[in-house]
Queue: 2 jobs
Job 1
Amino acid sequence: MNKYISLAFFIIVVVSVGLLIGYSTAPGAWYHSLEKPPFNPPNWLFAPAWTLIYVLIAIAGWRVMMIEGLSGWSGRVWFVQMALNYAWSPVFFGLQMPFAALAMIVLLLFSIIAFLLLARDDKARWCFVPYAAWVAFATVLNGWIAFAN
């Protein structure tokens, strides 16, 4: 039973912090004025996509912590990618610095790939596959916006 409580805790914390950061740095007039690529998804898609991704990130982190604890490399990389993930929106939307955000999202993508390579749990790795794909796409979007504006 304790493992399900810790899973719930992981999900609640990861999703809550992600949503709090997302809502506190919601795209405003500055973002809406930017030139965006023709493949830019509609704004309504981002909140549900990130919510699902945050649930998967939490499950992956929980699985790694259950198997390796905090001492394993994949657990450390999980925390690094979370810090980069949470920092991206304030840099891009809050500080309105798309080039700094681009550098950050590239580091985030590398940390996600590192997690995929380091995690010993297949289910944790599979939870990160959609995340890696979404962040790779977001990196392209961020780069396009940075260089077009």
Job 2
Amino acid sequence: MVTACASNSVSLNEAPVTASSQDYNYLVGPGDTLNIIVWRNPELSLSVPVRPDGKVSTPLVDELVAQGKTSIEIAREVETELGKFVRDPVVTVIVTSFVGPYSEQIRVIGEAAKPQALPYKQKMTVLDVMIAVGGLTDFADGNAASITRASEGGKRYSVRLKDLLKRGDISANVEMRPGDILTIPQGWF
């Protein structure tokens, strides 16, 4: 019976230790909060949430798509819109609450203590993810876990969560990429 189970398993390559790129820029997503500051115009400055449709509204700017853009891109667009009403506006946009676009969130499914989607952060590792989700359940087969990497067309990699969390094997700690899905299967015992 054990032989039959082993022959049906899929062999995956182990996840590469480093995965992030140095040129990563945070993209704004629904649920983020933006602090929009218009220099010398405090009445136009405010903190605003990004709506579920990815847009924001500010005084004199009815709707502006913020989702999928950097804070600098949003600031330049707000300047363009405000330029119709204010002479030479100077705008700074600061992201103060981070969720990020859905396509970049790290999703943890299966036998995590608290399965959830997490905002991606540069240099985030699988250990950071496991701390955020509260570790493994008692029924998890941590060393059979896998990462599905959206940025590589859905390629799957194996990760050794049990070795990392229970044995302290830091060599099992790998970097995450935006959009990764960490799947933790249930073990037999």
